Amino acid sequence: MIQLSNIHFIREERHILEDVHIDMQKGENWVLLGRNGSGKTTLLELMNGYEFPSKGKVEVLGNRYGQCDVREVRKQIGYISQSLFEKLNLSDPVWEVVATGEYAFLRFYQEIPEEVKGKALDMLKRVRIPHLADQPLGTLSQGERKKVMLARSLMMNPSILIMDEPAAGLDLFERERLLQDINDLSKQDIMVVYVTHHIEEIIPLFTHVALIEAGKLIASGTKKDVLTPENLYRAFGVKVELEWFRDRPWIKVLE
Ligand SMILES: Nc1ncnc2c1ncn2[C@@H]1O[C@H](COP(=O)(O)OP(=O)(O)OP(=O)(O)O)[C@@H](O)[C@H]1O
Predict the structure, then answer these.
(1) Strand-pair partners of 64
(2) C-alpha to C-alpha distance for 137 and 21, rounded to whole angstroms
(3) Dihedral of the alpha carbons of 41, 207, 127, 148, in degrees to the nearest 10
(4) Which protein residue's CA is at the shortest distance from atom 18 of ligand 1?
(5) What is the pLDDT tens value at each position of the chain, 255 positions in all?
(6) Do residues 9 and 16 make contact, with C-beta atoms less than 8 angstroms apart?
(7) Is 198 in the pocket of ligand 1 (CB under 6 A)?
């Protein structure tokens, strides 16, 4: 569903990505894991067609970027990021913010059809915040805001859902509630691509991990193959021990 081949991304004489290959197949859900500034968000921008590689090939849902209308491909991709959140209007009621996802608008300037409103309310039920439907977006907690983004991105029934550090800034309770909603996506026919630097966010939904350091791929493949103390040391420069509990990896720092 997403193929990145021989990707190089050079800006201002800096090699930000170097010879990256990742092949994401249907039925898989991926985590891109790596330190701050390793190139994770840049990879997401390439998948969305907001950036183009200096060299290499990006193919998404059978469309080769550069030879297709990227806007058409984007209609099948949900993207959750802080920069998108910042474009939303904090005074709009939550249900309306969710409803805008149906058309990939940022705001409505005309009446919203009843069926779209109904669908938005259903999405809010799905992420367990139906009681917040009429509240202005700006009054919500950080965790609730992330759930609104998730509900909004599901409105257009995407084939791929890309999330850039959705759990950043959440406390343990809020993080686990959000991760539970994301894990529930396993019931749906949707590929999830998730960026984080926190290993414990690799919930059972995720099947594969790409580990990246300074723009280079250290390893990519099934999570049990990639998440070894050796690979994590290469990516994070910290010696760790790793333990699997309920199909989630937990780490102990050794030094
Ligand atoms: N258009 C650009 N021009 C110059 N430098 C860029 C550009 N885009 C990204 N970079 C640089 O590339 C590096 C990788 O950035 P990126 O945002 O992809 O990292 P990241 O792994 O997502 O980091 P974080 O976890 O901190 O969000 C950073 O050092 C960033 O400053």
Answers:
(1) 59
(2) 39
(3) 10
(4) 39
(5) 999 999 999 998 899 999 999 999 999 999 999 999 999 999 999 999 989 999 999 999 999 998 999 888 988 999 888 888 888 889 999 999 999 888 766 666 677 888 999 999 999 999 999 999 999 999 998 889 999 999 999 998 999 999 999 998 889 998 998 999 999 988 888 999 999 999 999 999 999 999 999 999 999 999 999 999 999 999 999 999 999 999 999 999 997
(6) yes
(7) no
What the block records as the tokens of 74 is 């984007």
- How far is residue 51's CA from residue 56's CA, in Å, rounded to a whole number? 12
Ligand 1: which atom is nearest the Cα of residue 38?
21
Give the span between the Cα atoms of 131 and 148, in whole angstroms. Answer: 12
Residue the block writes with tokens 């201002």:
12
Pocket test for ligand 1, best of 13, 41, 51 (most atoms within 8 A of CB): 41
Half-sphere exposure of 234 (CA within 13 A, CB side): 14
